[in-house]
UniProtKB/TrEMBL annotation:
InterPro entries: Thioredoxin-like_sf. This is Thioredoxin. Pfam families: Thioredoxin_9.
């Protein structure tokens, strides 16, 4: 898989939003507003301190709740630090490239690939931030429902940012 070619064919975040239904676009705009308003200063400083050129390639669809939740914080990272860039490819037209990342034989989105300046994959995040996966996997059913509600309300938006920072550093 040639990540450079895939990255160059991807859409910028704002162009991706133009392809969405109005409802999906509004949901993503709400999450972006929330992350801008609530992001911890310490995390902002960590983002600003990244000196490497980083490319983030996201396979996504606008109708997907996990994409709606996790893409706005990634976009916000790119606004804080211009050394970090993001491009988005629609899953439905690029599914063959996701095969190495399939879980139980299926593509999960968003599939987020963190690439270095030479377009080599450093690491990836599939579907949800690690903390959220652990939280949902380790809870009793009633606690898991509460955790999912918090996730969908945007209470864990910073977790995807923490994952990306950990990958880059």
């Amino acid at each position: 898989m040639n990540f450079r070619e895939l990255y160059e064919k991807g859409l910028d975040y704002k162009d991706f939003l133009k392809t969405l239904d109005i409802e999906d676009k509004e949901i993503m705009e709400r999450y972006l507003k929330l992350v801008v308003e609530t992001l911890d200063e310490n995390l902002k400083e960590k983002i600003k301190s990244i000196y490497k050129d980083i490319k983030i390639l996201v396979f996504a669809e606008g109708w997907c709740p996990d994409c709606q939740i996790n893409m706005p914080p990634i976009f916000h990272i790119t606004n804080i630090n211009p050394k970090i860039k993001m491009k988005i490819l629609k899953r439905d037209t690029n599914e063959e490239y996701l095969e190495p990342y399939f879980i139980n034989g299926k593509p999960k989105i968003p599939t987020i690939l963190v690439l270095d300046s030479t377009y080599r994959e450093i690491d990836n995040i599939i579907e949800r931030p690690r903390y959220v996966k652990e939280l949902l996997g380790s809870q009793k059913e009633s606690e898991s429902i509460i955790a999912k509600r918090k996730y969908k309300k945007g209470e864990f938006l910073s977790e995807i940012i923490k994952d990306i920072i950990a990958i880059i550093k």
